[in-house]
Amino acid sequence: MDLSREWLSEFVDVADIPSPEYCDRMTDTGSKVEGCRSLAGDIVNIVIGRIIKKEQHPDADRLSVCRIDAGKSEPVQIITSAQNVYEGAVVPVCLEGAVLPDGTRIKATKFRGLPSYGMMCSFAELGLSEHEMPGADPNGILLLDQVLPGPFPIGEDVCTYLGLRNDVVEFEITPNRPDCLSVIGLARETGASFGRKVHYHTPVVHGAGDDDRVSNYLDVTVQSPLCARYSARVVRNVKIQPSPLWLRMRLFASGVRPINNIVDITNYVMLEYGQPMHAFDYTCLSGSKITVAEAAEGEVFRSLDDVDHVLSAGMLTIRDAEKPVALAGVMGGANSEILDTTKTVVFESACFDGASVRVTSRALGMRTESSGRFEKGLDCENTVGALQRACELVELLGAGEVVEGMIDVYPTPKETVRVPLEVERINRFLGVQLSESYMREVLESLDFTFDGNDVIVPSFRDDVRCMNDIAEEIIRIYGYNKIEATPFTGKVKPGILTPAQKYRRALGELLVSFGLYESCTFSFMSAKNYDKIRLHPEDQRRRSVVIANPLGEDTSVMRTTLLPSLLDCLARNYNRHGTPTGLFEIARVYLPKKPDQLPDEPQRVAIAFYGEGDFYRMKGMVERIAAHAGVRGVKYTACTDQPTYHPGRCALVSGADGTPIGVFGQLHPAAAGNFGFTGEVYAAELDFEALLSLSDFEKHFVPLPRFPALTRDFAFVCDEAIEVGKIEQLIARAGGKTVEQIRLFDLYRGAQIGEGKKSAAFSVTLRASDRTLTDEEADRTAGKICELLERELGATLRN
Amino acid sequence: MKEQLQQIKEEALAAIGGAESGSALERIRVAYLGKKGSLTAVLRGMGALSADQRPVIGQIANRVRAEIEQALSDRGTALADKEQNDRLSAEKLDVTMPGADIPKGGAHPLYQVEREMSDIFTSMGFDVADGPEVELDYYNFQALNIPENHPARDTQDTFYITDRILLRSQTSPVQVRTMERQRPPIRVISPGRVYRSDALDATHSPVFHQMEGLVVDKGITMGDLKGMLETFARHMFGQSTRIRFRPHHFPFTEPSAEVDVSCFVCGGKGCRLCKGEGWIEILGAGMVHPNVLRGCDIDPEVYSGFAFGLGIERVTMTKYGIDDIRLLYENDKRFLAQF
């Protein structure tokens, strides 16, 4: 809401308060100021002048030499190329040193040998348009005597004369305060904020004074409860013409384009009273009837802006005997628009249901100034005042004759709301000590009244319903910042993180210690990502929660896997700088259940890296993650059925009881290629909830070994297909409980051991907890190991 | 004999002085003091001396021996020092060469900030609550005093899954879920992702993070809200931080406020970060609306409470001077490594 301070001053005198101070205080009392601008901007030294003499420039055909009375002791000589000036014309004169809105500074100069001490300017150079200056030549000098009635104070600041020396304060009004979307509403707030008296104006309408009655013109029926009140008056003998300058400039200051007197009046009243108005051309209403009724399904309505809309049943319309002539509270129809030929006008001032206006305007994509106000819920006690004001302006502007009588259909008058003034409770609630008389004073300044101990809420304050609301009214005027900050007391208790929250933190720290960077990616993505990571067509993860109104396809499904978003980020790193990079993300995935149920939102851990490390770096990380969580007996199984991964370099991770923990491996080259990688990329996605459920964060102390260990090294030659994991299992089995550690230290393939074979070298640490192992014992164990491996796997010791 | 001793001494000292290595010194020691050494030989000949001569010469001989031993030892130490110094200087490294590449990773700045904030609140006895991101309209709006077709819904353009399921546009639904689950006293924060259908640009993201706070108990006042937020602001932004309340409107709190903190760069004088204002808008807060309490079966005549919410992106960007929100989701290592 743009508030003209000049307009405001008609209601409350705060002229002595500079705009910055005014804005600060208004923000502090709850009317947030977004900005403040001067209409004249930086314009300096442009005055009203009259051309006394106009002569042809002796050396230039296109130039005239003007001598202008600009209120100085001597006329000012200005040379111009404008063709529309003449002797006697009243023009804006930029004197030497003048500054235009665009910052141009005017200097004395010479044209073909003759000095020119300034320039005359057009309306555009004053920051105005043809709407504010109707009839003026957009390409010539602004001829004030042609567009304004005068008289013209020669030598006076033109901006002052045009009403541009005025500040406009831009308010951000919250949706609970539609009453503040008006000059009167903001005047009320201003009065309360500065302790100034507000002078409300009661419109006076003289009327045509004859026997003609509104009932001769119009019969109004309201057929829907969505219209709480419908007030209307008729104006005859209308003369459509531009509004006077003062009215145009108030609209201009409020950011509304002047059009003609009747339309301007509706806009003016909307801005002043906050009540949207509509004007119909009476002759276009067939059957002398207005009916407020809901539309029939499929009905077509052409709005003022000449767009056809197909209406749905339930949309509220204003109709004549045959057709809809307006969408209630949204926009008028092209069929009854005010034209230059309009002779008789119906002013509508009505109150429509906010939710209904909102649904209609959204459904049809028509957000208008009017719908934006109605949908916040307007005061039905405001319609008549606004209507009267419109008629008063008609008479003031000589725009027509107001027909006697008013139509006012108001089936159920609004009930008065009362809230008890609970002084003690309010003070306790706010943490202040204010007197009852102060509270009453504040509420009265906001036009609340009292009935005994009850506060009577004014009809325009639908947002005030209970103690909290009354408390807010008082405290915002008193000053939020005067409340003393207090420490609240209560039972002392520690703030607690759940086990999942604690593990989330610890896991993040662990992954960081691996040299990975934590990422944060969007929770939604394109469904095409499932193809990019080559999920099987039947994969459950292709079933996503789908957003009905996404910003675009690429953010349209809630992800069921973190991999694609993380790989996108990894690829971005690869493309931008290419240095080895590892990322991880711990975040939710969204797994749909039944359509009307909320999805599951389990957390996943995804890791991806390129450039440094291989499959076993990833496996090392996974092992460390499991060890860190105290997950015991983790199994790694070769996995060939995950198309995301290289079929020979992918492992399934599961708990000792078979609980799936996740999958990791080298990304399938085709999947890597889908993200733009050419080299090897490794990825893992683990189930956070599974890790947590298998975790054991209890630490158990094991005494340090008291007896020395013995080591035996073996190099087994076996078939290539035999997994190291299998060999380790057998070593452990054969060695029994003296086996403390089995460490693979070499893996060799080559001609020496033959095609299809490999040599795996292990260092096995043996230790007994109760005695020093003898060499003989160790050798016996070694013998058992060799025997079992030979028998089970055909593995032989390498010579 | 005396002269002989004197001569041995001079020769030995000269030889020691000229020795350039440990082994040369050892040779000298053997040559003079060894079993077949020249001083040993002289001492052996002492038996031939008269009884009154013997102690005199013996004394001299011992002195010579001591002097030679001392000289050997001194020279040995000097040579060892020299040897070590030579070795050390040969081992000299270029200290300006780069260090070994120790793996470096880092937590995401958003989550670092979230954690810092959570730590402040948990230290004041707040629990941390989670709630669903795909949420019922009821919890996101209706239970927060925002009925259907209420214009307040416009300020938060919402992603919908179905008519009654949406992506939560605020963390406030966790307030309601907490109050349904738990009776007062309640002291809880809830950080998490929220969604609004704003196109991604330098200052907007359709996904971002908020932290919600809720306190409900008997006798909670608006002064308590100020006290709590002041404590938080001081711990988060520095001890000299001040806060300022501006009246605002949120459907689920009444009275409601927007809260600014004094600029922690300029301290309130006005700078680029605070755009000359001296204040930075950081959160929204207010006293829990009685309708919200009532909806959760908490009697507003008995209990009162406050709630607040702040944008974690906003805090992060302000704290680190990040000028483009997209950097937070691009996850460029060169960005992430800065935090």
Put the structure in a nutshell.
Chain A has 799 residues and is of the alpha+beta class. Chain A folds into 6 domains: 2-39 and 166-194, Phenylalanyl-tRNA Synthetase, Chain B, domain 1; 44-162, Nucleic acid-binding proteins (OB fold (Dihydrolipoamide Acetyltransferase, E2P)), CATH 2.40.50.140; 214-409, Phenylalanyl-tRNA Synthetase, Chain B, domain 3 (3-Layer(bba) Sandwich); 419-481, 2-Layer Sandwich (Phenylalanyl-tRNA Synthetase, Chain B, domain 1), CATH 3.30.56.10; 499-694, BirA Bifunctional Protein, domain 2 (2-Layer Sandwich), CATH 3.30.930; 710-797, 2-Layer Sandwich (Alpha-Beta Plaits), CATH 3.30.70.380. Chain B folds into 2 domains: 2-90; 109-336, Bira Bifunctional Protein, Domain 2 (BirA Bifunctional Protein, domain 2), CATH 3.30.930.10.
How does the SSE layout of this entry go?
The complex is a heterodimer of chains A (799) and B (339).
Chain A: E1 2-4, H1 5-8, H2 19-28, E2 32-38, E3 44-56, E4 64-69, E5 76-80, E6 90-99, E7 109-111, E8 114-116, E9 118-120, H3 144-147, H4 158-162, E10 167-172, H5 183-194, E11 219-222, E12 227-236, H6 245-253, H7 261-273, E13 277-281, E14 289-294, E15 300-302, E16 308-310, E17 316-319, E18 324-327, E19 331-332, E20 345-352, H8 354-364, H9 369-374, H10 383-397, E21 401-402, E22 407-409, E23 417-420, H11 423-430, H12 436-445, E24 449-451, E25 454-457, H13 467-478, H14 499-513, E26 517-518, E27 524-525, H15 529-532, E28 545-546, E29 557-558, H16 563-576, E30 581-588, E31 603-610, H17 615-628, E32 635-638, E33 645-654, E34 660-667, H18 669-674, E35 681-687, H19 688-694, E36 710-719, H20 724-735, E37 739-748, E38 757-766, H21 775-793, E39 796-797
Parallel strand pairs in A: 11-14, 26-30
Antiparallel strand pairs in A: 1-10, 2-10, 3-4, 3-6, 4-5, 6-9, 7-8, 12-20, 12-21, 12-22, 13-20, 14-17, 15-16, 17-18, 18-19, 23-25, 24-25, 27-29, 28-29, 30-31, 31-35, 32-33, 33-34, 34-35, 36-38, 36-39, 37-38
Helix pairs in contact in A: 6-7, 7-10, 11-13, 20-21
Chain B: H1 2-18, H2 22-33, H3 38-44, H4 53-90, H5 109-123, E1 127-128, E2 134-136, H6 137-140, E3 165-167, H7 173-181, E4 186-195, E5 207-217, H8 222-237, E6 243-250, E7 253-262, E8 279-288, H9 290-295, E9 304-311, H10 312-320, H11 327-330, H12 333-336
Parallel strand pairs in B: 1-4
Antiparallel strand pairs in B: 2-3, 4-5, 5-9, 6-7, 7-8, 8-9
